[in-house]
Amino acid sequence: MQIHWYPGHMAKARRQIEEKLKLISVAVIAVDARAPLSTLSPDLAAQLSGKSCIILLNKSDLADPEQTKLWTAYYKRRFGNALAFSATQDKPARLLAAIREAAAPIVQRYAARGMRKTVRVLVAGIPNVGKSAIINRLIGQKRAKEGDKPGVTRGLQWVRLSDTLELLDSPGLLWPKLEPPEAAERIAALGSLRSEVVDEVELAWRLIDMLREAAPGAVAARYGVEEGPDARRVFEQICQKRGFLRRQGEIDDQRGAQVLLDEFRGGKLGRITLERCDDAEAGSDGNEAQ
Ligand SMILES: Nc1nc2c(ncn2[C@@H]2O[C@H](COP(=O)(O)OP(=O)(O)OP(=O)(O)O)[C@@H](O)[C@H]2O)c(=O)[nH]1
Ligand SMILES: [Mg+2]
Known about the structure:
By secondary structure, the chain is an alpha/beta fold. It folds into two domains: 8-169, P-loop containing nucleotide triphosphate hydrolases (Rossmann fold, 3-Layer(aba) Sandwich); 199-281, Conserved Hypothetical Protein Ylqf, Chain: A, domain 2. Helix content is 42%, strand content 12%. The protein has helices at 8-20, 44-47, 65-79, 93-112, 131-139, 181-189, 200-214, 218-223, 231-242, 253-265, 277-281; strands spanning 24-32, 52-58, 82-84, 119-125, 157-160, 165-169. A hairpin with a 4-residue loop joins strand 5 and strand 6. The radius of gyration is 20 Å and the shape is elongated.
């Protein structure tokens, strides 16, 4: 499927972050645990080289726990530091400890000179991955604006975590070329692209294909339909079963698509990871992290 989108405000967000990079010592790079490879910005890691980075596999409450373990190990091997997290369910202690550990050498260096320095921690990642929710969880207050759609955070926002740590919430970043197409589709399926730039019906068909591979039986179990190879046919059956019909008995495909996408995003079809870690290890995906 073709995804056309306008990256104008992304360029602005990127510039805003670049301007602040000098101040940043530690970066928490949030990826979505349901597609940990496709949701890692290919150039963010490069931009942040030299900083101490933690890859945070957020929304792990919605992902397959076995896959999350494998993906966390994968990123630990690649970046040295990775953690699975749920900003809605987990206590922040482990993430706090990881941030403190990453910041410790800098704090100590300054302490040795008798100075107390605030270490600044950037929280970055694609839209809707949960950056603001992560910050709110860390500080135990709703200071950063959260929302169930991409593009909620528009500018940078500093939030103090302790007397030595300050967090920087940032707008979601995507890169100009979403490649390969499967990666773009996963990003869209997770709800990180504005719905106006995506044909939701086509995306629903693609999601049915993705689910057939990633979680065979999940669609059948939820909707009581047969999971044949023809995604459009499966989709029609879902609409019929749920009564998403217009007056002449025609399928209301828009409504069907919205419900299927919402239910998948909300975890109603189970804890599903769209990207298997062994696929990435085998190098079969072109969007490998650097
Ligand atoms: N289930 C679940 N939902 C989460 C988690 N983290 C965030 N959310 C939800 O995901 C949605 C997006 O969260 P935000 O924190 O606004 O995401 P963001 O990355 O700041 O998004 P932008 O500012 O738009 O780039 C909200 O509805 C959150 O409640 C998580 O770990 N698990
Ligand atoms: Mg935000």
